[in-house]
Specification:
Elements lengths: L1 H25 L2 H15 L10 E7 L2 E6 L10 H14 L8 E6 L2 E2 L23 E3 L14 E5 L5 E3 L4 E3 L10 H4 L1 H14 L3 E3 L11 E3 L9 E5 L6 E2 L25 E4 L8 E5 L6 E7 L11 E7 L2 E7 L9 E8 L8 E5 L8 E4 L2 E3 L15 E3 L13 E3 L19 H7 L4 H4 L7 H17 L15 E10 L11 E5 L16 H20 L6 E6 L3 H4 L5 E8 L3 H7 L2 H23 L11 E7 L4 E7 L13 E8 L8 E3 L3 E5 L6 E9 L2 E2 L6 E3 L8 E6 L9 E3 L5 E3 L11 E2 L35 E2 L5 H11 L3 E6 H5 L10 E7 L20 H12 L3 E6 L4 H4 L6 H11 L1 E5 L7 E4 L10 E3 L16 E4 L4 E7 L5 E7 L3 E5 L9 H16 L1
Parallel strand pairs: 2-3, 6-9, 6-24, 24-27, 25-26, 36-41, 36-42, 42-43, 43-50
Antiparallel strand pairs: 1-2, 3-4, 5-17, 7-8, 10-21, 11-14, 12-13, 13-20, 14-19, 15-18, 15-21, 16-17, 16-19, 22-23, 25-27, 28-29, 28-41, 29-32, 30-31, 30-33, 33-34, 33-35, 37-38, 39-40, 44-47, 45-46, 45-48, 48-49, 49-50
Helix pairs in contact: 2-3, 5-12, 6-8, 9-12, 13-18
């Protein structure tokens, strides 16, 4: 009986498969091939997916389901395209199937389900929001149609790590094309992406150190290693010791499992609404003047307050914050970057008060961290000698790849590098995460621990919130996560490898722990990919490659329980990609693209109309409107791709003397009258604001009114260049970056540069990260922060002008070109040209930018000089940009010779950067000067100064480079006066030398 039963069941299954096989065969192979051919053509129009095949067909009633290869899912789908696809497939079917319903399935989903935002409303990933982790109360705007109060988790790929198999610290990727991925992705995330998201109102959390400051000061109730002061002021209620563990900095370095947030104590007090407040003050002993990141820490308790009020006192005044202590306890919480003076200063401190909107809740206080610091996590091979292979993120970590090191007495070793260079695994230990987050291998493999830790960190900080309500954690409701990477791979025909997006849905029944669909990650990926590719193609490279969207099990895409994208932006190994990738303009654009993608994703999840933050303003000017007032003017910049990105208001930020900028003042128009005092140097910058947030700032302009002025000087900032290093590609299979010719110009500072490229042969392959092949670069600068264009040079010139007794105002070059400022109102113009020169982006599809003397400026200067105006010009390429360029123009050279009275002699005129004054008909000039020629953290380097010679009557050499006696500068005295030097004034090393040279120039011009 039992045997007959199994026989009948087997027969039933056999019949089922035969029937289905017959159904599949109803559609001939020729038609399936035709459908596959059509889908291949359709998919490969913009994304290279390869050949798409119809793997199987299933017919059920009046429905025919076509199962296509997974590579069809690599492309984005629009609703109208899905309709076209189905109509085309119907047209390819035999007549008898024309009225059947068609389904096209790839990667387990119907293609219509892959359309962007094709999810039901109940599947939207929206957290319960109340108060955010951090709120800046001094910020004069609210981005209620931006990302206000949302929490995002972002990280910048890899980092410096300890390789147990070699018992050494090393990078996780190769040193190539003057950078390494471990640092390169930071050049997007830290200076651009994170500030854009924060300007939109978001709280952004990172699993790596974000402050590049090498100093670190810890001020704590338990112990201070320097003269820093922690003090308590008791009011109505007194501070008492907390019951649980808190932070203490008791060791110089930390080994596996050692957690500084479980080594000490914290303090607590009840909140009050009225009465005498209780305060904590953290007063750091600052080792050096500079900008520092400020972090706080505290303990989250059952009755914690949600409005802990911190104030940071700094060189720009004070900035107030409200911290929701119901989340984020037991780790470092970032407040912002602030400037502090050296030493202990009551005006440079952090203060916490127990004043609150609700009395009787618990306020806690623990350590304050100021500055990024150096790595302090010590590593060594596992005591057993066991190590494991470095399994890729997309592969399963097996236990059968175990090896054993020889018996050597290894000692714990810290990295010796700034903490911002290190991988997430080490920051997470310093930031108090449990070792179960960052030490999955139990000390045997830091490489796999590092990439695994990032995803588990997301879940840890989200634990206890509506994201993961059943898990322990920091209770922060994370809305999305993104891993920012670059890829490997090369092409030898200088074609672009381009951008790849990765997400993961095939995990946990395709749901996050809160029950929402993991397919939201595809929407996030598609939005960000769309924005990146669209913007790059429009702005820089029409042939930028859009690669696939992969649904694959990469750890960083799979583990987080929030919508997550892993971005492979470009290939850091491919020369064509990196000609764009090393340019700060490209990095700004890409970062803005990512920000826009995230904004649009979150706005859809929460059901509101988004507004994109504006672009920075232009045509900025600052001129006196009386003895004690300055008038600021500017113009907005339209974003042609985003109609919502229009300014509603503007913020004027003010810096007084050697201080820092204040918290800003809202103005409604495109001008503002600001009060000033005589003898005080004021600096201003402008941002544009709308309901989506705040733009990046304008350049910085400065003014100073002297009580008994000898005259007034108009400073014109004509140095707005940002660029990649000089690159070349020859016909004999060599190419690369030659930064000794032109290092390019970083934006403010650069911390992704590691050293010059030394391998230029394209045929040399990558063999190992220590033998990187074509593009291989030195590592002698990989812990150096390299100075770039600060956009703050009018203050430097102005400081020397006021030292000589003259007043000054300043304007941007564009304000001159569009007629907003008339140079003829001033007897002397100081034109700053820095490292301005004609520069192309990538392969040069877009027009060159940053010409020293565009035609409109030549015309303005010519008219000014003809009316008797005097001009001082300094810059590294003021002659070579007109003579030694790809397409020199005779008219440009004639302008320089006939109007400014100089001509080009040679570029790269000096190495040492030393200049001497020589005998001339102008005895007012004297002194010796030295400017920066090597990369450094203080001022941009001038690797290629110009030698220029006098042209015409009454024009003479007044300066020479000491190493070769080439002419470094000229002066002309005729109907008007000119002084032109082939090195930037602001690059002179010593303030006294700058003051002396400027005094000489002013005496010459005004006599």
């Amino acid at each position: 009986m039992k045997r007959n039963f199994f026989f009948n069941v087997s027969l039933l299954f056999l019949s089922f498969f035969i029937v289905n096989e017959i159904k599949a065969q109803i559609i001939p192979d020729s038609i399936k091939n035709n459908i596959g051919t059509y889908l291949t053509e359709f998919a490969n129009k913009d994304v290279k997916t390869g050949r798409i095949k119809i793997d199987s067909v299933n017919m059920k009633g009046k429905t025919i389901a076509f199962f296509a290869g997974v590579n069809l899912s690599y492309i984005p789908f629009q609703k109208n395209e899905v309709d076209v696809i189905y109509n085309k497939i119907k047209g390819l079917l035999p007549e008898k199937y024309k009225k059947h319903k068609i389904e096209l399935i790839t990667d387990t989903r119907k293609v219509e389900d892959l359309v962007l935002f094709g999810k039901e409303k109940k599947q939207l990933f929206a957290n319960m929001l109340d108060k955010p982790l951090v709120a800046n109360l001094s910020q004069p705007y609210v981005a209620d149609q931006g990302l206000q109060n949302h929490h995002l988790a972002i990280w910048q790929s890899h980092g410096w790590y300890y390789e147990q198999k070699l018992a050494r610290w090393e990078w996780q990727r190769a040193r190539i094309f003057q950078t390494v991925e471990d640092l390169y992705t930071q050049s997007y995330v830290l200076p651009y992406l994170v500030p854009m998201l924060e300007n939109a109102g978001a709280n952004v959390l990172l699993p790596r150190e974000r402050d590049i400051q090498r100093h670190e000061i810890i001020v704590d109730n338990d112990r201070n290693k320097d003269k820093s002061i922690y003090k308590e002021i008791n009011g109505k209620d007194s501070w008492t010791a907390g019951y649980y563990e808190g932070f203490a900095y008791l060791k110089e370095s930390y080994l596996d499992g050692e957690n500084p947030f479980r080594s000490g104590s914290y303090k607590e007090v009840k909140t009050i609404k009225n009465g005498e407040e209780s305060r904590c003050e953290w007063i750091p002993d600052i080792p050096e003047n500079g900008k520092y990141g400020v972090y706080i820490s505290y303990k989250t308790l059952a009755n914690s307050t949600d409005d802990a009020r911190y104030t940071v006192y700094h060189k720009g005044g004070k900035t107030d914050f409200s911290i929701n202590q119901k989340m984020g306890g037991g780790t470092w919480i970032f407040l912002g970057y602030f400037s502090f003076d050296k030493g202990i200063n009551e005006n440079c401190k952090v203060v916490l008060t127990n004043k609150s909107n609700k009395a009787g809740r618990i306020l806690t206080a623990d350590a304050v961290k100021i500055g990024g610091g150096m790595g302090n996590i010590a590593r060594l091979p596992h005591a057993s000698g066991i190590v494991t292979d470095n399994t890729k993120s997309s592969e399963t970590i097996e236990n059968d790849n175990i090896k054993k090191l020889p018996a050597i007495d290894y000692k714990p070793e810290v990295s010796g590098y700034p903490r911002y260079t290190e991988g997430a695994r080490y920051w997470l230990q310093w930031a108090g995460a449990p070792d179960s987050i960052y030490n999955k291998s139990e000390g045997k493999n830091d490489y796999t621990d590092d990439y695994q830790s990032r995803g588990f960190w997301v879940n840890y900080i989200a634990g206890g919130s509506s994201v993961l309500p059943k898990k322990d954690g920091l209770n922060i409701p994370i809305d999305l996560a993104m891993a920012f990477h670059t890829d490997a791979g090369t092409t030898f025909n200088d074609s672009i490898i381009g951008s790849l997006g990765i997400y993961m849905t095939h995990h946990n029944d395709e749901k996050f722990e809160n029950g929402k669909t993991r397919w939201a990650s595809r929407d996030l990926t598609e939005l960000i990919m769309d924005e990146i590719v669209k913007d790059i193609r429009r702005e820089y490279e029409p042939q930028w490659t859009r690669r696939q969207m992969w649904n694959r099990s990469y750890s960083e895409a799979r583990v987080p329980n929030v919508p997550t994208m892993l971005l492979e932006l470009l290939s850091h190994q491919n020369f064509a990609d990196m000609k764009y990738g090393l340019d700060p303009r490209f990095r700004f654009t890409v970062s803005r693209s990512i920000y826009k993608g995230m904004l649009k994703f979150i706005a859809h999840q929460y059901g509101y109309d988004y507004v994109v933050q504006p672009l920075p303003v232009k045509s900025f000017s600052a001129q006196f409107s009386g003895d004690t007032q300055v008038e600021l003017k500017w113009k907005p910049v339209d974003d042609v791709t985003e109609p919502s990105a229009k300014p509603d208001q503007y913020i004027v930020y003010t810096r007084i003397g050697d201080g820092d900028f204040d918290n800003g003042k809202i103005v409604n128009g495109i001008s503002a009258i600001m009060p000033i005092e005589k003898e005080v140097l004021y600096s201003f910058k402008i941002t544009a604001v709308n309901k989506g947030g705040q733009s990046f700032p304008s350049e910085i302009l400065s003014v100073c009114k002297k009580s008994e002025e000898k005259g007034q000087v108009l400073i014109v900032n004509g140095f707005d260049r940002l660029s990649a290093p000089y690159s070349f590609a020859s016909r004999d299979s060599i190419g690369g970056f030659l930064d000794f010719i032109d290092h390019g110009v970083p934006d403010k500072v650069e911390y992704n540069y590691i050293g010059s490229q030394y391998e230029f042969r394209r045929t040399i392959p990558w063999m190992d990260d220590d033998a990187a092949g074509f593009g291989a670069s030195n590592g002698n600068y990989e812990t150096t922060v390299v100075a770039g264009n600060t956009f703050d040079y009018p203050s430097m010139h102005g400081r020397s002008i006021t030292a000589a007794g003259y007043s000054f105002v300043s304007v941007s070059r564009d304000a001159i070109l569009d007629g907003a400022v008339d140079m003829n109102s001033y007897k002397l113009v100081d034109l700053i040209l820095g490292k301005q020169r004609q520069t192309k982006m990538g392969r040069g599809v877009s027009p060159v930018e940053f010409k020293t003397f565009p035609k409109e400026l030549q015309s303005k200067i010519t008219d000014y000089c003809k009316q008797g105006g005097n001009i001082f010009i300094s810059g590294a390429y003021i002659a070579s940009d007109l003579w030694d360029t790809e397409k020199p123009q005779v008219e440009d050279q004639k302008f320089a010779a006939d109007v400014l009275k100089y001509k080009w002699r040679v570029g790269r005129a000096a190495v040492e950067g030393k200049v001497k004054t020589i005998a001339s008909p102008f005895p007012v000039f004297s002194g010796n000067y030295e400017f920066y020629t090597k990369l450094n953290p203080i001022a941009y380097a001038v690797e290629s100064p110009d030698a220029l010679e006098p042209a015409g009557d009454n024009s003479y050499t007044v300066f020479r480079y000491t190493e070769n006696n080439l002419s470094a500068g000229i002066a002309h005295d005729g109907d008007y006066k000119t002084c032109v030097i082939g090195f930037p004034f602001e690059a002179i090393k010593d303030q006294a030398e700058r003051d002396s040279l400027m005094s000489n120039i002013l005496s010459f011009m005004f006599k």
